[in-house]
Amino acid sequence: MKRLFIASGLTMGEVNQVVKQLGGVENFRRLKNGNTLANNVRGLIEETEISPVLKPTGDPLVLPAQTGYFCVSDWFREGKMDDGVEIVNTNVTFERQFFDKVEIGIPEVELTPYALTKARRSPEIIIALGGEERAEISLWHLRRLMRRTQAGEPTVIQSGRNVFYGRDARLVLWEIAVYWNDDTGRNWNVNALSLDYPFASNRGDRVFSCDS
Questions:
Q1: DSSP string, 53-99
Q2: Mean pLDDT over all residues of the chain?
């Protein structure tokens, strides 16, 4: 990977901040031919190779359509369900934002798994996935995926932390962190986190794109 010393430890967000402090993109362009700092920034942007944020980890998985009603609170409550899925914890935010949601008429989707190659917060992950539309999954599909994983079927979920994005009843998009505790009881933790949550998902965490 080609790097300049100026890029050491910098994120793209920090590069953007430097450009802002120079007075924005147009001012940067005016300065770049004669200003030493601007030339350094131009070198950082043009000559530094940025490694991909996402690494494909497997084949896409098709999840079927659902023509009826799906009440989130019926299928994401704590405890062991009739289909074998055992949720040991849902955080207060998930319960507050999603337990009043009812989904109707969910189309088939193709879910593609990726692993994060470096720690990133949700806004950056969503951009890497191709935007909110491709990042969003229905709670019906998430729950079906959990059931298939619980039953021992090969799916795209990994043991540990899996990051999804779903909308609540008010159409606000949230990060949904799903922990599959395969080695400590074969059960689940489900937490909703704001996209402004200050802590990043870790390298190796699984994320997904959804294509209808």
A1: SEEE-S--EEE--EEEEEEHHHHSSSEE-TTS-EEEEE-HHHHHHHT
A2: 83
